[in-house]
Amino acid sequence: MPLRRALLSVHDKTGIVDLARALASRGVELLSTGGTARHLTEAGLEVTSIDSLVGFPHLLGGRVKTLAPQVHGGILARRDEPAHIEELEREGIAPIDLVAVTLYPFETALREGKDLEALIEEVDIGGVTLLRAAAKNHQDVVVLSGEEHYGLVQDALEREGEVSLALRRRLAFDAFQRTSRYDALIARGLGARFETGGIVLDPFPEAFPLPLRKSQTLRYGENHHQEAAFYHDLDPRAIDEVGLANARQLHGKELSYNNILDGDVALNAAREFPDPTVVIVKHATPSGIASADTLLTAWEHAYATDTYSPFGGIIAVNRTLDGSAAGAMKGIFLEMVLAPAFSVEARDILMKKKNLRLIEVPGMERHVQTDLQDHAPRGRRLTYRSVSGGLLVQDRDLRPFTPDDWEVVTKRRPSKEEYDTMLFAARVVKHVRSNAVVFAKGTRTVGIGGGQTARVDASTIAVHKGGDNIRGSIMASDAFFPFRDAVDVAAEAGVTAIVQPGGSIRDAEVFAAADEHDIAMVTTRHRLFHH
User: Catalytic amino acids?
Assistant: First the structure.
């Protein structure tokens, strides 16, 4: 189907002159709005302005330009419906065969932190309406919603002299995707601003808009036969959040699906601690975590927790990675290292490993609780998880640890040193897959068990991995003990104190078991499941 008239109305002028020239060279009449019309005229192209077409000027400071029957009648009329064509002829409306629109930059305004009034003015009305109308009638109208589409149409016209129905459908799909994301971003963006203005909104509305933009296509998914991609959440509550979506890869192979999952676990765990900390993650669960005065010492302690699991693992540190720590890591096969920054010496050491991914995560050095206080996000932070046919949405677990509220439930009270270790161990167990237990000494782990169907099994595994190092350690559990068996396992291994949420119907039995073994036990009433 030949193209006779095209409507060009773009905020981003990139590539529009070349497209207009290609269309004009084929005898296509160019229609355009204010700024775009001036831009094309200055480039020497003949343009019919929309206001002359519809018979009135732009209204309300430009809020009303293309919302007129002369425009949308020409776009929406079906060429295979005689009644539509007769109606156009009766009203003196000519068909429009191509629509090119780029929308007002609402996302940019949101990132720049513009005030609410300015943000509202960046909500595009006419542009979205044009795209939807053209996409709806894609059988007869070519719709271009981004500069990346211009070349596709130009190439099709040069090769075939027309735009195929297959390409029209692809372009229509892209237009619907773009307007959908745009609407979701507006809903979430304005919602966040309304909340900061004191309006209470339901964080879990009946319809849940989620604006996402693809950051990259991944090499594959969890397995080689699965395709995958990584998307950046454009919600203002997440747009500047410390995370892999805002990270920069300095070296190594492309990120894989599993790298991102493991890296997210490592990053979140590393930010849990205020002191220099090293986290080692394998298969989405930590195998060792330690805090110390230096990253080198923290690395040595974290690695000593489990010396065989780190092979092929992920490392995260919450301080600039220095040469001494990097030198200690270089002898082990690792998939990825995450840090807020890398020293020149650390880069020189680790970049000798061709495939090792080095990921710089700005802001990672900020302890998550300090970050919440000093860099408060707009609105609440949510986390998402897909299930077959749906999406689970919940608040991110950012509740602070409050040891002053913990309760001693045994005859022996913990010492000050044991209390400090309990706090460290509780922060660790929060990031281990349930059922989870952690054994710690000071600010280092000596045994970690998680991802088991019974807490006693997790305890047995952790004791097996920790060996003699468990003796004299503190045990943390992510949830209550349903039976006393895990306490007995811990006691036999030489544990001196236990911190756990409590709340079991057998709490009395569990507390009594601790007393039998002269173990100090504290309950937090703070469950830390991580499924």
Answer: 136, 283
